[in-house]
Amino acid sequence: MTLVAGVDSSTQSCKVVVRDLATGETVREGRATHPSGTEVDPEGWWVALQSAIAAAGGLADVAAIAIAGQQHGMVVLDERGEVIRPALLWNDTRSARAASDLIDEFGASTMARRTGSVPVASFTATKLRWLRDAEPDNAARVAAVALPHDWLTWRLRGFGPANPRLHELTTDRSDASGTSYWNPDTGEYDQELLVAALGHTVVLPRVLGPTESAGVVAGTSVVVAAGTGDNAGAALGLGASSGDVVISIGTSGTVFAVTETAVHDESGTVAGFADATGRFLPLVATLNAARILDVMADLLGVDHSELGELAAEAQPGSGGIVLQPYFEGERTPNLPDATATVFGMTLSNTTRANLARASIEGMLCGLADGLDAVTALGVGASRILLIGGAALNPAVQRVATEVFALPVVVPLPGEYVAAGAARQAAWALTGVLPEWSTLIAAEFEPRYVAAIRQQYGAHRATSD
Q: Whole-angstrom distance between the N-terminal and C-terminal Cα of the chain?
């Protein structure tokens, strides 16, 4: 039996799955937690990766490994390979002004054409611009910039402060496309945009193709694949193809599809990312997703299951109550300083059931706006693959059929980002992308209720 390993180094934790290359069956797995916060010392990721690998039984019998990681995070290294300051994560919004400055300097249409996307606070270039303006001494020390999965791949191969070969840094198309200084159409870095962000040129990771290997795990013969961004990893793990739209309800919410051609959205709503296969991954992301349900469950004094039971007691439209769920500010629409608002409360409709349902409707309506934005660019959509922990809640599934006018398919729970990384590892090892099946938990035909979206739209905030 040939074994391959996939890693999901997410915002909250590190998961490792070891799979049988021939069947895709999970043989063993392990996990470890990550430090919390929107800025984190990357050493915490490295410690967690080693712990998760050990918990998964180690790599002694594994032939190949790939790391999928949270996108966009800024890891800045000096010439000795030392991390200069804690990494700013995708959900750190302090660089919102820097994003606006870059758009003002180059224009939204130019940025979309040259990088596939209009920058927002999540993207790496904006964080570099923030560093240049807020911490100029640290910015001046930067010799290389990496993303989380780039840095972990580099460390796994034996590099770091004890062996600071910066030119050994590697990345892949999907993660590079979220930096705002790499062009998915040409496959080249845009040095002018990099310098506009940071102020000077630096070493950037070499962008590997989907089947390329970055090298081997230090001291072993275990092949290390290119790795990928978390959303591209999920698409690969699910086996998403043309016509599939993946909606993921996790810490953040994402809506993305796999396409053969790149998209360029000058409004900035849809990011024109690349995927892990050589194709493209138009994507909309929201900062607020499952945590909306966390907050409402805590407010009502119930767990998630009980929240769903309460929501099931209410009618579509929540009695007229609308939750605009921008608890953490918002990325789409681009409102980093926004707050959550509840509209339409009266003495008669303010019930626990209506509030519970309004939280689910608000979360899903925000994602439905993302679906509309993706399909408006000509992306075909024939079904929705609904994933993430909240997707298993029966009330979320029911409301999804009312909010989305497409069939909803809920795959069985699984570590799909890590599974995608494992598929990529197998691809780098053999040159053939394995066909692993995705097991389905439930399928639903749409029962679209237009009034839910109309009611939400009447109160929707928009970006400036």
A: 56
| Distances in whole angstroms, Cα of residue 130 to Cα of each of 96, 101, 120, 123, 199 | 9, 10, 12, 11, 11
Cα separation, 262 vs 174, in Å, equals: 12
**Location of structure tokens 């390329």:** 212
CA 170 to chain centre: 19
Task: Walk across the sheet containing 280-286 and list its strands.
Answer: 271-274, 280-286, 253-257, 243-249, 381-387, 408-411, 440-444
Structure tokens at 324: 């605009």
Tell me what pLDDT residue 314 has: 98
What pLDDT is attached to residue 464?
45
203 neighbors 167 (Cβ within 8 angstroms): yes
150 catalytic? Reply is: no
CA distances from 155 to 34, 49, 50, 152, 162 (A): 17, 10, 11, 5, 10
Q: Which two tokens stand for residue 170?
A: 């590697």
Residue 351's pLDDT is: 98
- Give 324's strand partners: 341
CA distance 73 to 126: 11
pLDDT tens digits, one per residue of 263-275: 999 998 999 999 9
CB-side neighbour CA atoms (13 Å) of 382: 6
Distances (CA, A) of 452 to 273, 315, 322: 30, 10, 9
Question: In whole angstroms, what is the distance from residue 322 CA to residue 345 CA?
Answer: 8
Q: In which region does residue 193 sit, left (phi positive, over 0), alpha (psi from -120 to 50) or beta (all else)?
A: alpha
Is the previous residue joined to 161 through a cis bond, with omega within 30 degrees of 0?
no
Please tell me the distance from the alpha carbon of residue 300 to that of residue 296, in angstroms, as a whole number. Answer: 6
Q: Which amino acid belongs to residue 319?
A: G
Output DSSP code: residue 315. P
Contact by Cβ (8 Å): 89, 70: yes
- Which pLDDT value is given to residue 250? 85
pTM, to two decimals: 0.91
Question: Would you say the C-alpha torsion 373, 379, 383, 386 has a positive or negative sign?
Answer: negative
Note the pLDDT tens digit of each residue in 139-174.
Answer: 999 999 999 999 999 999 999 999 999 999 999 999
Residues of the chain whose pLDDT is less than 70?
A: 462-464
Catalytic residue, from 101, 172, 230, 265: name it: 230
Q: Which two tokens stand for residue 439?
A: 């097991």
In sequence order, what are the residues at sequence separation of 6 or more whose Cβ sits closer than 8 angstroms to the Cβ of residue 412? Answer: 438, 439, 440, 441
Q: Which amino acid is at 36?
A: S
CA distance 66 to 226: 7
